[in-house]
Amino acid sequence: MVGVAHAQQPSPSTRPAAPVIRSTNDDPRAVDAIYQSGFLVRHVSRGDPALIVTVGGGGSRISDVQWKAIIAARDQIVELDLRRSHIVDSDIAIVQQLTHLKRLHLEANDISDAGVAALVNLKNVEYLNLYGNGRVTDASLERLAAMASLKRVYLWQTAATPDGVKTLRAKRADLLVGGDAASRPTE
C-alpha cells in the first residue's frame, strides 16, 4: 500500500512541494532492529523513507537474526550491501523477498550461476555487483541480459570470459558492464 504525505499549504509566493510517497509499511522499529542486528542502515533521504542497508566492512556470515531483521523491512529496502559476508546461492532465496531492491552488492561472496539464476526474479534491480564471485561463469550472462531493469553489472574476478561479455554487450547495448572480462580484448 502506498499513501501520499502532503506538505503544508504553501504561501502564494512559494512553490508547492512535491508530494512525498510513503509506504504504509514504514516502520521505525524495523530500522532499529536492522541496526541492532549489526547492520548499518539509513534512509535514502529525509523525504524518502526507503532504506539502504549495509554490512559495513563485511567479513562475518549473516546470522539468522540479521536475516530476520532484513525480511521484516523487505518493503522498505532499496539497496542492500552484503559484500564479504559469505553469501551462498541458498541465501539468494532470502534476498529475493526484497522486491523493491534497486541496488545489490554481492562482492567477494560465493555466488555461482545458480545464485545468479535466482536473482532474475528481482524485477527492479538496476545495479548488481558480482565482483569476486569466481563461480559466476558465462552461463550467467544470458540471465543477466534478461534482467530488463538492470543498468549496470560488475563482473571483475568472476569466471565470465571476454567472449561471454562481448555477447552480453551485443544483446544489451544499454547495459554497462565492468570487470576483467569486460576490459580484456578478445583474440
Relevant terms:
single chain; 187 residues; alpha/beta; Leucine-rich repeat, LRR (right-handed beta-alpha superhelix); seven-stranded mixed sheet; 9 strands; 26% helix; disordered C terminus
Provide the fold topology.
Layout: E1 2-5, E2 20-23, H1 28-36, E3 40-45, E4 48-54, H2 64-72, E5 77-81, H3 92-95, E6 103-105, H4 113-119, E7 127-129, H5 141-146, E8 152-154, H6 162-171, E9 176-178, H7 180-183
Parallel strand pairs: 4-5, 5-6, 6-7, 7-8, 8-9
Antiparallel strand pairs: 1-2, 3-4
Helix pairs in contact: 1-2
Entry summary:
The chain has seven helices and nine strands; from the N terminus they run E-E-H-E-E-H-E-H-E-H-E-H-E-H-E-H. The chain is of the alpha/beta class and 187 residues long.
Provide a descriptive summary of the structure in words.
- With 187 residues, the protein is of the alpha/beta class.
- The protein has a single domain (20-183), classed as Ribonuclease Inhibitor (Leucine-rich repeat, LRR (right-handed beta-alpha superhelix)).
- It contains seven helices and nine strands; from the N terminus they run ββαββαβαβαβαβαβα.
- Strands 3-4-5-6-7-8-9 form a seven-stranded mixed beta sheet.
